[in-house]
Here is the input.
Amino acid sequence: MSFPSLTDFLRGARDQLAKGPVALLLIEDEAAVQQTLAHHLNAGFKLVLALSPEPLPAHALPRDAAERIVNLRHESRLGRAHVEAVNAAIEAAPADTWFYYGYNAEFLFYPFSESRSVGEMLAFHAEERRRAMLTYVIDLYAPDLERFPDAVSLNEAMFDRTGYYALGRMDRDGRYKERQLDFHGGLRWRFEEHLPQDRRRIDRIALFCSQPGLRLLPDHRFNIEEYNTYACPWHNNLTAAVASFRVAKALAKNPGSRGHIRSFHWRNSHPFRWNAQQLMDIGLMEPGQWF
Here is the structure.
């Protein structure tokens, strides 16, 4: 079985990447791999690059999707794996190619995603002269760690209905950056003592358009400041959400935290209904001017 590396694939992939939008999915473990791939195919991504250290088993790949999924070798478990993958894709792709990046057991939602494709949404966003989109990473978790020791349950997923807040983002001179905020909440807020300070934010610029000189930074922001803004100067823009089991998995497995956490469930836990409307109703996504 051929299992080329991401580097090998990108050498001759310019035409394939140009068909975008393209999803880069870093596969770190076996949790919900098939469901993650299927979710992003259903969203309308033209090409899904599944990046994993070892070849994915055949049963992890959705049926009848071979022409849209490419499994590539990449050390996706390393700390800077997302930086290396995203920046390599930016360099290889034509300018103005839309990308999304995330991990297995993470699921992208955007306003009206049940009835509209990600391509339609990004076309509107580009018409508003936006080249990136803020996404909030909403922590999902299983309600019972005894039944679900890896903290993953698609059928019984829970999330925090409240407890989200934003702080002004400052530059090196102590001045607030225009239209940039640091967002917090979810498991990163409730169990912050188990997370390094630089990993407690829930904002990620997960959707972006390639251009020469663009670089992703390790903290999920970009080197071009306008990419890190939540809206243009004139009005509110679209935002999206990434429903993610990633933090719950880490807290449930890491030696430093697993012995201190009996359950993620608390008074503000709420069943996740797997639709965009629920996230908009709670204020975790913004439709902007798109109706």
